[in-house]
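Exercise: predict the structure of this protein bound to adenosine-5'-diphosphate.
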Amino acid sequence: MENVELIKDGKRLDSRLPEQLRDVQMKVGVVSRADGSAEVRFGNTVALASVHGPRVLYPRFLQEAETGILRARYSMAPFSVSDRKSPGPDRRSVELSKVIRLAIEPTIFLEDFPKVTIDLFVEIIQADGSTRVTGINAASLALASAGVPMRDLVTACSIGKIDNTLIVDLTGNEDNNSEADVAFAMLPNKKKITLLQMDGVLTKEELMKLLQLAKESCEKIYELQKNALRENYKTGE
Ligand code: ADP
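Solution:
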């Protein structure tokens, strides 16, 4: 691992405090052909989510008689990273598509939509760390704006550990050089965790502290999500 000093005098390379999010921007209703859509930016990470449905699933043999299904696709644009990424699916995007589906599924009343599909596309336009959680935040807004019946929004954040310090909302550089990093998603009102993935090693005490910080960070992000939805109703799009 490269020896980079990522925290100096209590601040990160971009002058953030350990618990500080990057500049966050959220906009709902950005894809005119979609039933619901949203763009979410955390610093230089930009995710676009687009929802199509609920609609009856064809071909018919794919239908589930008792429930609807959510199909999710995560994809990173070739121009989203500094070295061009080869287009098309790879192992990572297959994993992240599944992770996003599992993080989102518990909030949707799928049981009320037999034989139906909801199609969710998460496109990473720019990648600078934390793309899966940025994608989940965008996906949840896109679903809400599509009018999909949901128990709650889904709110997600990344937390890592560098130099014995827990940091929130990792950049790509921080992600590559962290001792541990966690992707976390929850239903903020139901207080239910729907995603918990970790790379690296933490003690039990560190993990408990990290989870508390993740919840607090998600509460902040949840407020921004609600504002983005309200903003969309204001403009009537
Ligand atoms: P996440 O983006 O959810 O944190 P990873 O830990 O897999 O997921 O990726 C961390 C970061 O590494 C990404 O956000 C991106 O900045 C960078 N990255 C991932 N895949 C590639 C790639 N194929 N080429 C260049 N950078 C990449």
